[in-house]
């Protein structure tokens, strides 16, 4: 349940959470429709004054205590995350550790919500005016989260929301709601007041839509697909948005790159979360002078990736989220092959598992090159020089992260400046992310930035206070 009192929203049915690995039932939980979401919004709206009045030290305490709770129960969190989702148990443990850091970062950033004094006397006639700005909460925040990072991405929305003095409602992905519910348990244990943070599992067409369109919701923080993000913006009306809408990330390997460093890093970025990752290395751009050598090393390494039982300590990669996702990836690969691409490794589907796959000679304007695959598939492309590499990398309507491998610092600066994206990882794959850094993209990859301190700025607004001071006669 999302709340603990008799005033809790009423469920309308059940959601069966299935293990993507074998389709077995993990847990059956209450499902909330539009009416249930409206009830949750009522609660959050009533809780807003209490959220605003929470002093900074109390917000910090709640966030630190929630982080400590997750840390103490990290084994339970990792098991839940892996069971309901696509990550191996080792990937799940890493996400839990990041979640602890995200919550602690949120606590630390709370003390840094600061304003500025304003020199009103810069304007003639305003010599008696003095004032300042302070940052105030946005209000009620609606957070809609995806299945691929079902714990840390929730923390990235909830932590800054609480830090900023807001109320927040999370509508988690219907396939992976259990991690969000466990995070709510951590905040309950930390003593967060009723209604300030709620988790409302449901489907986008009813619960999600009700959250988006309600005028009392002043900001929507969404991570997911571009098509859904555009629909949300059309439906939501006048409110703030934070949108991370995926990518088609390139990683460029220059002719002077250290392949012993580059290949393992790129492999990790290609298969993390079975490629169901917005920072997934989808396009690998190799200088023509090293193309064959780098290609052969990459293909050999991809062929050694161990995929299967995600609970095994020895496994590198788990399943796709559901049969439809696995079928969609397979259809994309098969279409590329029919259209002239060459399969270098992989290309097989076994139930919800899809083999790590490498393609070359994919046509330049093919959907495999232009759109987001969201699966463990990487296409290879040769380039002659920096200008061509930049042109290939930028030739998509996405721009989240890119990777560049080179030993030439001048080239690194030139290429990084020219790439149209929100972040460039030098001598790392596009998959690297620091939770404290600004995270977001350009073009079709979204609007705004996450990263705890940066999204906290988005979840607060500046308010100006100006005093027209009346001085007594003769005062100097």
TrEMBL record:
Gene3D superfamilies (UniProt xref): Aldehyde Dehydrogenase, Chain A, domain 1 (3.40.605.10), Aldehyde Dehydrogenase, Chain A, domain 2 (3.40.309.10)
SUPFAM superfamilies per UniProt: ALDH-like (SSF53720)
EC number assigned by the record: 1.2.1.9
Superkingdom of the source species: Bacteria
Entry keywords, A to Z: Oxidoreductase
Aldehyde dehydrogenase domain: residues covered: 12-464
Pfam family name, one: Aldedh
Signal sequence extent: none
GO-annotated molecular function: glyceraldehyde-3-phosphate dehydrogenase (NADP+) (non-phosphorylating) activity
Keyword Oxidoreductase: yes
InterPro entries on file: Ald_DH/histidinol_DH (IPR016161), Ald_DH_C (IPR016163), Ald_DH_N (IPR016162), Aldehyde_DH_dom (IPR015590), ALDH-related_metabolic_enz (IPR051020)
Family named by the database record: Belongs to the aldehyde dehydrogenase family.
Name under which the protein is recorded: Glyceraldehyde-3-phosphate dehydrogenase (NADP+)
Organism: Natronospira proteinivora
